[in-house]
Amino acid sequence: MTQPTDTPIYGIHPVEELLSVRRQDVEHVYFDKDKRSQPLFELLRICRRDRMSYNLVPEAKLDALAGTRRHQGVVAFCSARPYDGAEAVDEIILAKAAPLFVVAASIEDPGNLGAIIRSCVCLGADALLLERKNTVPLNAAVAKSSAGMFEHLKIIKPRNLEGLIKGLIEEKNFSVAGAAVEGGVNPAGIDFRGPTVLITGGEHRAVPPYLQKLCTATVTIPMTPRGQSLNASAAAAVLLYEIARQRG
């Protein structure tokens, strides 16, 4: 289960308003699994329709998350900063000849996500794309571990990440490189100078299958026999450095 951000928003009307004006920034919604009402059903329907991250939990869990029993059966958590809209992808493509988008899939540790954000900024990535589920929220811990880079990168959580990447391949001539612990090509052997999407896996999962099938290449960082693997943020930094090196 995804860890919540720092400040809860609870109550039917506040959560309705949140989903109305800041839906893309909602990280997770928790519902009382035993409470029934039409307004709660409608909020749950929105979460399902928009592929939002949510859980049905016992009332005691909801009490603890909200810090009060006056939550009316629903508690939501937002990102510490607004996500950029999907239109930022098109803006970047119009502005740059060879954009670089990074997909950090299944990242569960805020320290790793913050470090990836820092590497993206330092090594020239144009935007970070995140899954709607299975990814740590943009909370205060991520902001701290990014060492001030949190506000200097386009961070997008598209409604349909798979469809967005398919469009980049078919309509914008992007290549897609997926990172793997073994079995891939040495990253120095791939030409990263054109429009590129780099996909990395998480701490406990490889690149998920629905993204693997979109990859036009698989890359594996060469290591000594003693080194089994790098953690997610270190691997991302190495691959981003190789891309930056090729691009001069």
CATH superfamily of the largest domain: SPOUT methyltransferase, trefoil knot domain
Looking at the structure, the CATH topology of the largest domain is Alpha/beta knot
How many separate structural domains?
A: 2
Provide the CATH top-level class of the largest domain: Alpha Beta
Specify the helix fraction band.
25-40%
Low-confidence stretches: none
Going by helix content, strand content and strand pairing, the class is: alpha/beta
Q: Order of strands across the biggest sheet?
A: 7-6-5-9-8-10
* Beta strands, count: 10
Secondary-structure element sequence?
EHEHEHEHEHEHEHEEHEH
- Kindly provide the radius of gyration, computed on alpha-carbon positions and rounded to a whole number of angstroms: 19 Å
- CATH architecture assignment name of the largest domain: 3-Layer(aba) Sandwich
What is the 3D shape?
elongated
Q: What is the end-to-end distance?
A: 41 Å
What profile does the largest beta sheet have?
Answer: 6 strands, parallel
| Number of contiguous helices | 9
Estimated share of beta-strand residues: 15-25%
Mean pLDDT: 92
